[in-house]
Design brief:
By secondary structure, this protein is an all-alpha fold. Helices cover about 70% and strands about 0% of the residues. The protein contains 7 helices and no strands. The protein is elongated, with a radius of gyration of 25 Å. The two termini are about 30 Å apart. About 10% of the residues are buried.
Amino acid sequence: QQRLLGHGIAIMVKWLLFAIAALLVAEVATLFAIASVIGMPQALVLMVATSLAGVAVLRHPGRTRITRLHEEVMKKGVRGLEATGDAFLTIAAGFLLLLPGFITDAGGLLLLLPPVRSWIRRRFQRVMQTKPPGPPDVVDLERDQWTQMPDRQLDDRRRPSGPS
């Protein structure tokens, strides 16, 4: 089971690296497309300007909001994002704007729009309210809540003997 988990993580890492490489290729293609319309120097200035906007957006929530976000996530895990309001979305927007590239800039700008923020917040709340069906895979019990029973020996006659 642990080997299967390791294999799953390896697959996720491969897909993540593929997605990063695809984003990098798309960002370069977008840079050249925009540069062909407005010129390369103007495109580079625009990219620097959006990175500076990202710095401004990251400064906006302030150190206290970022610290509060960190504390809530450490206490509650992913559910801590819900308790911090818009701080997470503001930080994500600033980070996307800070990264060089027009595709990430578009994502960062979208995250700053109130209708997009409220849509993401509603979707997140809906996902957090959904409970997985059935019993949990692992139930942790205190030492006084269980007793160890001896293994039962099965009679060989009761075991299915396979196809006859």
